[in-house]
Each structure stands twice: as C-alpha cells, then as structure tokens.
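Glutamine synthetase structure dump, as promised
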Amino acid sequence: MATLRFHALSELLSRAPKQVKLPSNKVTDYYADMVFNTDSMRKYLSKDSFAAVKAANAKGGTIDRKMADGIASGMKAWAIEKGATHYTHWFQPLTDGTAEKHDGFIDYGDDGSIIENFSGKLLAQQEPDASSFPSGGIRQTFEARGYTAWDTSSPAFIVGTTLCIPTVFISYTGEALDYKTPLLKALAAVDEAATAVCQYFDKNVTKVHTNMGWEQEYFLIDEALYQARPDLVLTGRTLMGHSSSKDQQLDDHYFGSIPERVGSFMVDLELEAHKLGMPIKTRHNEVAPSQFEVAPIYEEANLGNDHNQIMMDLMKRVSRRHKFRVLFHEKPFAGINGSGKHNNWSLGTDTGVVLYAPGKNPKTNLQFLTFVVNTLMAVYKNQDLLRASILTASNSHRLGANEAPPAIISAFLGTEVSAMLDKIVAEVPDHKMTPDEKTALKLGIGRIPEIILDNTDRNRTSPFAFTGNRFEFRAVGSSANAAVSTTVLSAAVATQLREFKAEVDGLIETGVKKDEAIFQVLKRLILACEPIRFNGDGYSEDWKVEAAKRGLTNITSVPESLSKYLEEPSKKVLVEGGIMGEKELEARVEVELEKFVYKIQIESRVLADLAINHIVPTAIKYQTKLIQNVQGLKELFPEEEYETLAGSRLELIKEISLRTAAIKSKRKEMIQARKDCNVMDDGFDKAYAYDQKVRPYLDDIRYHIDKLELIVDDEMWPLPKYRELLFNC
Ligand code: ADP
Ligand code: MG
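structure tokens r here:
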C-alpha cells in the first residue's frame, strides 16, 4: 500500500478546528497595536523627531541623518516595550517574496559591557550582505553589496519579536534592486502629472496619491496531503493528477459557508493582520474547491502593496498553525479555476476626491472623464507593457484558461460610461463650439452620477475593468508582487497625462478656451483608443478574432511578452518617464527571464523524478500483479475460457507497458532538451528554448501519468489524488 498517502489521509480524520481567542470583541481595541504609526510616534518621539518623520513623508524622501538617532531611540523604546528583541530592514528583492536579516538590539557599550542599542545609522541605512539576490548583472559579485534605506512612507511594524523597517534595496551604484524603488518613483510621477491636470479643474489640489485595493485569492491544502505531494512542495502546483469527478461544476463552494477549520484560520489571520494595521475586511470561498479570498479596504498604493506582501507572508505562517499550507500559485490544479490578485487602482486628491468616481457637477465630471479617457489611452498604448508586468511562468497557465482573463489586454467600461464617451465624440464639433452646444454637452455630463449608481453591470471576463470608482486590473497573478503592475500602470498613466496636458496647453495657447480644449483632446483620444474598449465576453473565441481585427496583441509566450519591456513604447514610459534607467530595465528583464527558465527547469526535474521514482515503479508493480493473476487464470482454465476471462487484463497489461515506455522515452527526450537549452548564453534564446522545447514535455508526460492514475489499483497509487487534495477542509 502507498503508505504516505494513506497515512496523510488518516491524519485528516483527526483534524479539528483550532480555537482562536480574540483579545477583545472590538477590533479597534487592538488594531495597529504592532505598528509604529502616527499615534505611537507622537508618544515615543520628541517633537523635532516627529516633525522630521512627517516632513520626510510629505516630500517622499528619506530622513535627515542628524535626526535619525532621535527617531531610532524612540522606535527602539516602543519596540522593546512591545516585546521586540531584534530588528530587520525588510525589503522586496526581485524574488517571489520579501527578505529580512534579523539583528539583535545588543551591542557593546563603551566599557565593554552589553547594552541594548539601535542607532540612527542602523535605522536609516544598512548594508546587508545580500549578494545572492538576483540583480540581472547589475552587481558583479566583487561589488555585490547593496544597501537598504528606510522608506518613511511605510511605518515600521513588529512581527513576533522582530521590529521590521520597510526599506528600499539599492546597489552601490544607485540602481534599484527591488520592487519598491520603481513603485515609489512611479507613484511620484503620477502624482506630479495628475496634480498638474487637476489644476484645470481645482486649483486647491496639491497632491494626488494612488490607491490600491488588492483581492488575494489562494488555496488551502491540508499539510499532511501537501507533504505527500513533492510537486506541490517544490513547485507550488500539481504537475500531475487526473481531474476529480466532481470539482467545481455545481458552484457549491463559491460564497458557500466557510468550513470551520478554514474559518479559524481566517480569524487567526485577520487578528494578526489587524494588529499590523491592515484594514482586512472581506473573506469568502472562491469558485474552486479549497479556494478562498481575502481583501482589505483600499489604501495608499505603496502601503497597500507592503501590506499585501506582509499578508502573503502571514498567510504562510498562520496556515501552518492550522495544519494547512497556502498555495499562491496561479494554477495549482489543472482543469479548475486558478488564483488571481485583482489590483483595484485609482487616483485620489489631497482635497478628498477619488478621480475615478463621478463628481457632483459638470466640472468634476469632466475631470472624471478626463482621467478615465487618459487611463484608457495609456492602457491602449501600453497593452504590451501591462501584459509584460503580469505574465510569468505561473500566471501563463491561468491567463487565457477558460475562467481567467485572456492574454489580450482590453478595458471594460460598462454601457453607461461607454455611452458617455460616445456622446463626447458625437457632440464635440470640429468647429468652435457654440454656447448652446457647450451647455447641452455639460448638461449631459452632469448626469453621470445617477447613471453610475444604477449601473450594476459587471464584467468578470475583462482583464482591466472599470468598476464604478476605480479600475480593476484582474490579470495580475496571485503570487505576484503587485508593485510591478502598479508601477507600470501608474507610470503609463503619468506619461499619458503629461502628453494630454501638453496638448491641451498647446490648444489654449492658440486661443481655444480651456473647456473646449479639453473636450477636443478628449474626443481625439476617445477615437484613438477605441480598439481597447470591449464590453463583451473576454473568454469567448469570437473575441480573439475580433481583437486581432482591431490590431490588439495576444501574447501567451512569457519570453515574447517580456521582450516588450525593451521596445520603444515601454522605454518611453519607464526610462523617459524616470522610473528606471535603461540598464535597470534590461537587468529586470534578465532577472525575469532567468526566473522563467528556472521555474520550468525545476518543474521538469521534479516531474522527471516523480515519473521514474513514484509512478513507473507503481505501475509496474501493479502490472506484475496483473501478470500473476493472468498466469493463474491460464493454469486454472482451458485455453478458450482463459482468453475471455483474461482479455481485459491483458489489455491493461499492454496499456501499462505502452504508457510506462512513453513516459520513459519522453523523460529522456526532455532531459536532453534541457541539456541543449542549458548551454545557451543569451537570456532570451534560453527562455524561448525552454518555453518551446522543454515545457511541452510537462504536458506530454503528465498525460500518460494521469491515464495510469485511472487504471492502477487505488491502494497502490502513491500521490494524493485531486479529490483528496481538493476536499479536505
Ligand atoms: P469586488 O470587486 O469583488 O466586488 P470589493 O467591492 O470588495 O470587491 O472591492 C475590492 C477592492 O477594491 C477592495 O479592496 C476595495 O477597498 C477596493 N476599492 C474600492 N474602491 C476603490 C478605489 N476607489 N480605489 C482602489 N480600490 C478601491
Ligand atoms: Mg473585484
């Protein structure tokens, strides 16, 4: 009998929900308890230190080194009171996760005795010997060090007994080595460009911030079963497994009652998240069995993204307490829904206006339309860049699958906003507008709020959808660092807004009135970006044909998609837009190509190993049993009767031989293909080769394994099956 699988299944029977006790019935009693936020700063910092942090925040820079000691000692006092013994600069290298290196608060005092110390120098900047993180060749190993510097716009927090200080991670020569640095630059760029455009409508606006509200989807798998699946442990997805007879056909999991064990996990998770000042609000069952979602109320994007990263880490840790493992892979199971991370994105002003929410009068609505149209145009011009920001080895399984956004980028607006844009096109004349024409148009625009409130049409099939007061970038993968998509989107919109402003200003200079200039440019943009607007079914085959006719790109290959980063439109947004230098951009692409290659390489190695060490021996053992049985029949029965009786078993014996032979020969070919790829030097060549020459074997080999799973004696099958993995909560 396959012992590990059955041992895991019997473990499951003894699982019980873990009771979680909340410190209080009121969230507000413990919310942000572990965050060095404004309230705790006021308490622990001197007036000058407090002002220094606030000033740094306001201008988005770093703190004055002279002030750092004072701030550090206040932060240390707070942290020690909360039980912290260590501190770390917490950063987001170009890997799938965050990084931390803990140092104790201890040091030698002047007289050689041990003291508790945390200086300003250590707070502001550090040099972790982080030479093993991917840098895309920016750091040669002899100058491998990078340094981390405090991002004062994201508050320090305590996890366990460690004070975590959010930081950027930069090379000695000044290039960004992380996801946070370009994000901060993109947020600053869109702030500047959007504030300038807001000036047309409201002179009081001095700052525009970006909002992010993420929705994190995930799977929970019992830890015993997880451990019995080396593919899940090593690659985050199942490389084999025949579909379960029942999975999500009945939609009986989606929004169903949350299983008790999972409920306890969620309560525990939310408790930890609330203590860390994350406004977690929503939890529910998702479409696939064992799939769930968690979402906060939206926040400023840099903070929101930090929170998503912290949350993913928390989810890994808290799930273990409940004897679960959390899966963030975009497609852990073939044939059922995968997981995404909807990235709800909007801009808001320091006067309290969400720029994607319709306003109260024609003027604020014109502002709303200005931002919507410019965003559409940015998406239209940068479809390839946006896709490059989200298409990874793991997300490529999900995009274009029948339940996920396609690899064609389009934008859904809903019928009402679409009609509004069409109205502008129809009613803005080519000649100078008459006062009557202007009044009529403004009246029409003034009516937006009512129509949007009634507008309940939601399109789940669109990769980029307008949802009433924001755009929802749905193609983002569940395992992604959402900083990447937010950086690209914000930078693209910034570039577009700058161009818009230049064009409108140009018209004003020629004597056109401001409103009219805005209308004229909007009309031009609406017409130009028409192909990106699509309100229909993004999952349909018809859309692929229609999108091609419209000239929209449809790219499913990861290396091809990444190559778009290096083309002119992308460079215009990222390099000319001041988000990263050309060298940094190239380095990032190199890192992404490398990650892609490694992920496929690992999957291929794991599959080869499992096929030969788990599957083929099991199949042969079963075949031997069949052969013995058939031989027995032959001894017992006369020839004719034997043939009828043994017929189906003889077929099975043959099928097993054919399938195991196919697995073995495909495995051999796959290994050779890997070898051929591995000698390639060029990053792109190698990634294309892995995609085209190695990756197809994963499906080919799996096909035979899944067929064997159907015929081999269930008692002998070594790996937990889909029905077991998916129905265990
Ligand atoms: P769904 O899209 O499933 O209906 P919700 O209504 O729960 O989801 O919202 C999803 C996320 O969008 C939440 O994090 C929410 O706070 C966020 N959100 C709402 N309004 C905005 C906005 N203007 N900008 C950014 N995010 C927003
Ligand atoms: Mg949503």
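The mean pLDDT is 92.
lmk if u need the other ones
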